[in-house]
Structure formats: C-alpha cells, structure tokens
C-alpha cells in the first residue's frame, strides 16, 4: 500500500512539472512573437538628402560692446565736492555741468591777483610818464613792465583755477560712472566720472589667426545682442596688427549704429562677419540633430536598401539660420531623418514618407 501511494505522488509531481514547462514555453512563444512584431513594424519618417553647397564664408566670434569714445573726467584743481548734477546711467549733453568744487579758496586767490594787477598797473602808468620824461632809467622801467606781465599771468592762472572748479561734459553720451559724493575731498586730476558716447558703438572682438585673412576693412557684419533679443548691422572699422599673447587672436572692432541707445558698454554680442568668399559645406536642418547622454551630436541616416535607420555621430560647425554645418560624419547623398527621429533607435526599420 505504501508503494502504491509513493507511485501516485511521483505521478502527480511529474504531471505538475509538465504543466509548468508548458506554461513557460507558451509565455516565451507569446513574448517573442510580440517583440518580433514590434521590431518588424516600420516607423514612418521624413528624410532629407544631404548635398554640398557653396555659401559665403562667415566668421563667427563673440565680443563686448563699448562706446564710440569714452572719457574719464576729473578736476584740474583739488577741493571739496560742492554739487553733482547727474546720476549714473543718465544721458548728458556736450557742455553740461557735471559737478563743481567749493570755489571759495580760488575766488579769494582771484581777488588777490586782481588787486595785485591793479596796484602794479597804477605804478606802471606812473613810471611810464616818468620814463617818457627821462626821469626813470630803462632798467627800472623794464622791471616794472616785467612785474606787470607776471601779475597779469598770475591773474589769468587764478581765473583759470576758479573756472576749473566746475566740470563740464566734453561730448554728448551717458554717464557710465560717478565715483564721488558731495562733501568728498579729491585731488588734482583724480578721475571721478566716466562719460561714453554710445550713439554709435563698437564691438570689440578677437578673431583667430586662421580667419584673419578673410576679413577686410569695411566688411559687413551682423551683430546680435542676446540680452536685447535684437540684431544690428555693422561694419569692420579696425583690424589689429598684433596678436594677443595668450589666445593668439587678433583684435577686430565692428562699428554699429545705436540710435535708440539700447546697446550699452559691457554688453556681450555675437558677431557674424561676411568674408565675401565662397566655401563648400554640408549642412543639416537643426531639428535633425540630437544629443546623446555624453552630449555628442548625432543624426539618423536611412539605408534605403535595408530600409533601416542607423545612428551616426557627427561633428558640427557653424550655425546658418535653420541649418548647422557638418564638419565630419556624413557623406554627400546620404538621407538624414528630419521628421520622426525621436521615435528611432539604432537599426529601427523605417518607411519614408513625403515631406508635408
């Protein structure tokens, strides 16, 4: 009886194992079929054939905006700041009063000089009459004449010192910097204000030595200031002859009109200089370029024979409107996916649909 019961148990275990194997195989077959169906389902994509084209070579650089001319202003005499008539960022006119010093000491100096001149002039008139009558020697008359010239020179100096207690703007522009406050005592020649003419600005950029040969005086340029979201027309007005020691790049200045005074010194700008020379490039639409986790650029290229899309890493060049130049990674005539690329993996089957 025990033997019969053991046989039954073995039979039950055997049947259970067979059922488990059957269920596993069924699940495996079902899963494989779904995967195969998924892989074999083509993804519709839009492609663009890449060809070489002749375009004008453009030199792209970054620069800083600076005023057409900038002056750092200070008083020609020392003293205490008496008043300030403008604030930083304000527009100022040529000849406008910026600030003044306490003039009292210089006014007293001028009055003393005036009194000295008046006294010597009176003495000079008296000795002139005596000299005409031969009552005064030539040497004595020469001394009083020389003294009068010195007194008048001292008078002019004191008048100038008094006038120099008032500081005026040399040209129209904006007040970039105000380095003093009322009541401060400053020395002679200390720069306390900075004024810049920004009705026309210059963009100071550095051009690599390999691109310097393509730039000429008067070359047209497009200047985009990202902070303003605007683009301006300009032209090259200065080309440096000496490379910067660290970067081996040459300074270039682009002059740009600024009638609305939107551009301010210190802003950064992207500059595109037209070289006037043609160059051959391959370019892909910007939407076709993707980035992998390593930030490397790639596109999907369609193999029309195998009807599959394959991932291709590329090296990018300059941006041209809605296209990006490709330095390496593509060959002329290849089909690049420009629509539906976000659904693809390397080797995905595809069908090509016409552009919308």
SSE topology sketch:
Blueprint: H1 2-40, E1 43-49, E2 52-73, E3 79-84, E4 91-92, E5 97-101, H2 104-132, H3 138-163, E6 166-168, E7 173-178, E8 185-186, E9 193-208, E10 220-225, E11 230-239, E12 249-257, E13 268-285, E14 290-291, E15 297-303, E16 308-313, E17 315-320, E18 323-328, E19 335-339, E20 348-352
Helix pairs in contact: 2-3
Describe the protein in words.
The protein has helices at residues 2-40, 104-132, 138-163; strands at 43-49, 52-73, 79-84, 91-92, 97-101, 166-168, 173-178, 185-186, 193-208, 220-225, 230-239, 249-257, 268-285, 290-291, 297-303, 308-313, 315-320, 323-328, 335-339, 348-352. The protein is of the alpha+beta class. It has four domains: 43-55 and 281-352, conserved putative lor/sdh protein from methanococcus maripaludis s2 fold (Beta Barrel), CATH 2.40.420.20; 60-67 and 197-277, Elongation Factor Tu (Ef-tu), domain 3 (Beta Barrel); 75-102 and 165-190, Beta Barrel (OB fold (Dihydrolipoamide Acetyltransferase, E2P)), CATH 2.40.50.100; 104-164, Orthogonal Bundle (Helix Hairpins). The strands form three sheets. The protein has a six-stranded antiparallel β-barrel with strand order 2-9-12-11-10-13. A five-stranded mixed barrel has the order 1-19-15-16-20.
């Amino acid at each position: 009886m025990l033997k019969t019961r053991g046989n039954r148990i073995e039979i039950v275990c055997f049947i259970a194992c067979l059922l488990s194997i059957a269920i596993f195989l069924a699940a495996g077959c079902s899963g494989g079929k779904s995967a195969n169906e998924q892989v074999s389902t083509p993804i519709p994509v839009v492609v663009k054939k890449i060809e070489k084209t002749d375009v004008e070579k453009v030199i792209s650089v970054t620069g800083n905006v600076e005023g057409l001319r900038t002056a750092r202003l200070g008083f020609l005499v020392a003293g205490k700041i008496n008043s300030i008539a403008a604030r930083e960022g304000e527009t100022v006119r040529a000849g406008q009063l910026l600030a003044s010093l306490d003039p009292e000491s210089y006014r007293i100096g001028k009055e003393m000089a005036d009194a000295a001149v008046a006294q010597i002039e009176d003495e000079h008139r008296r000795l002139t009459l005596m000299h005409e009558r031969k009552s005064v020697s030539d040497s004595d008359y020469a001394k009083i004449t020389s003294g009068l010239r010195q007194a008048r020179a001292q008078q002019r100096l004191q008048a100038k010192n008094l006038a120099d207690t008032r500081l005026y703007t040399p040209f129209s522009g904006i007040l970039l910097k105000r380095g003093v406050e009322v009541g401060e005592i400053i020395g002679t020649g200390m720069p306390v204000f900075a004024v810049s003419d920004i009705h026309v600005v210059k963009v100071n950029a550095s051009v690599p030595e390999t691109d310097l040969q393509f730039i000429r005086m008067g070359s047209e340029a497009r200047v985009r200031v990202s902070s303003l979201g605007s683009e301006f027309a300009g032209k090259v007005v200065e080309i440096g002859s000496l490379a910067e020691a660290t970067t081996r790049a040459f300074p270039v200045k682009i002059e740009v009109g600024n009638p609305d005074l939107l551009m301010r010194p210190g802003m950064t700008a992207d500059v595109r200089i037209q070289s006037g020379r043609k160059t051959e490039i391959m370019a892909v639409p910007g939407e076709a370029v993707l980035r992998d986790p390593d930030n490397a650029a790639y596109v999907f290229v369609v193999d029309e024979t195998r009807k599959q899309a394959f991932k291709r890493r590329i090296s990018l060049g300059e941006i041209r409107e809605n296209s990006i130049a490709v330095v390496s990674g593509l060959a002329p005539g290849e089909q690049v996916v420009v629509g539906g690329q976000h659904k693809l993996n390397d080797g995905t089957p595809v069908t090509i649909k016409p552009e919308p």
